[in-house]
Structure formats: structure tokens, C-alpha cells
Amino acid sequence: MSLKDFLNFTLTKNGRAFWFVIIIIVLMIFFVHMRSITYLLYVRLFLSIIFVLYLPGYSLVELVFASDKDVSKVEQIAYSFGLSVAVVILLCYLLNYSTWGIRLEPLVISISLFSITCTTLASIRKYKKQKDRLSIR
What we know:
The chain is built from 6 helices and no strands. The protein has helices at residues 3-10, 16-32, 41-53, 55-64, 73-96, 104-136.
């Protein structure tokens, strides 16, 4: 598995979730540091809702159902919202007992790391499955 082949895979239809998650995380980190600009408030609010209520669950659904086509898009969205609530609660619980506490920056970092880890593992899993499927033919 070469990095170049993997990055080319992430540009295909099966690997676009990787870049979706990366872009949302980068935008969220940018807007977290732009708190003083008031006209960006609604953009920040919209990104925060996606970041907290959708992204962690979406990443976990991508990892768990990376190879299954039995799950429809509506089910994936429903699972994403439900799992996001559970994941964020567990991350807050872990942060509460850490030295960082539940503040904005540790929460953004922990959700970002969780989402990037799950999405990267899901993309690697999809890449290997596609590579095996192509080598069988």
C-alpha cells in the first residue's frame, strides 16, 4: 500500500468521506479561533452543529459499515446523529477526568482526533477491500 495510491483512492467516490471530514475539521478549527468576528457567528454555529452532532457519528459509521452496502443513506444519517451524541458524551466524560477539563479547545481537539482516526481507518479499510477486489479479477 503506497501513500500515492491511497491518496488517489481518497479522490474517488468511495474515498471522499476522508476529505469531507478533514475539510469540516479544518474549517471548525479556523472558526474556533475567529470568535471575535461577529458576522461569522452563524457560520460558526452551523459548523458547530455539524461538528458535534454529525461528524463523530459519521466517522464511526464509516468505520463500522465501511464494507457493507446493506445500510441505506437515511439509516447512515440516523446512525450518525445517534452515535455522535453517544461519542461526544463519552469524550466529555473522559475529558472531565483529565487534566484539561471540559473546555472548548480540548473538546475540539478530542472530537477532531476521534473523527480523523475513524475516517482514516475506514478509508484504509475501503482501500484494501477495493485493492483486493481488483486483484481477484
